[in-house]
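Q&A log
Question type: sequence-to-structure
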Amino acid sequence: MPYAIEHLGRSGMDIAIRKYGGSSLATDQQVASAAEQVAQAHNRGTSLVVVVSARGKRTDGLVRSAAGLSRFPDSLEMDKLLATGEAESAALFAIALRNLGVPAESLSGARAGLRAVGRHGSGFVSEVDPEPLRRRLAAGRVAVVSGFQALSPEGETITLGRGGSDISAVALAAGHRARTCEICTDVDGVHRADPRVVVGAPLLTRIDAETMSEMAFSGAGVMHARAVELAAAHAIDVVVRNSADRTRQTTIVGRGADVSGTGGIEGRAGVVAVTHDRAVTQVVVKGGSGVAALNTVASMEIPVDSVTWGVGPSDELRMAFCMPDAALEEVLAELTGAVRGANGSVETRRSLGKVSLVGVGLLSRPGTMIGALTALRDREIDAQCVSATQARTTFLVPRARVDEAVVALYEEFLLDLDERGLELMST
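Response status: OK
Response body:
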């Protein structure tokens, strides 16, 4: 399925789209604080659509409850269940706004005009009807929309995948022809590395959507990769800032500006950031049909990464790829049957993590790969698989040593950049 909206209406209104993540709404006080921010903007005359995620770890709790009742719960019922987390957030946010004297109404994704197609649990936004929100905004109300969810062609609730509230917010921005979309979370913006792993990792004040999409796909948890791609497709700038401190931010430029650092320091790899993801598993297919294996995963609309393909001494196919841990059991149930039917076998390696260099022109600079492998070797970290493109080089390393690998690569490529270097690479 494409990552773009197939049809968009025209709202005819200048509105602001603001999304609050679950970590920014975890407590009642945080909900009240976020509502005060929205009330201030409303009182200044801004027409606001607020998109909310489920509070704190609410979604994880719902998933655990379902898993306690069934190993493979029905996907439609799971969508209905998980959508209640965002509905709770939206209703509480609207209550908080009304308490401040702001007319507000909570709406499901369906009632807000979001339509999606695809599999339950991983839907793709296909259409935005602007009329439901336009009517409410014209009446002076703040619309609080449950993120992560939409209406399927069958008239059922369909969710957009974990982190799907980002997609909801950007889709609504596209549907209402907004030039920007604001993402309020628990971090200051996008850093060159996870500041919980690399203390003092600098904030990127501006970054192009293409580079940000690579960062998101390879583990940067600030924003969903599909939301970034959607913003770029519809020329929307996304501003990411801390909901508790709005003085710092990152602007993800979706309107075609070249800010990725292609004019970076000559002679060094054009590395913009180091990302990581511990929640991945390497799946190894031996014998059988590699095409059938990949087709099985693709039909489930689950993205894979770090694909390797080769033939051993006995002419036996050996293919490997990485996929999210969260989808592993569901995939294995389908994949094992497909591969065994072609006289193959499936193995999993769950002890690995993914560490990536993200930037521009990485293959054009031969020193990037050798510098990275040397930095890992010096720490006695074994890179068990490497995949590379111009925009990203990914290493699979022992999961227990992911943090060490991040620090090693950060120190090799980013630590000693002076202030001018940081400016060249990030603006």
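Response note: The chain is about 35% helix and 30% strand.
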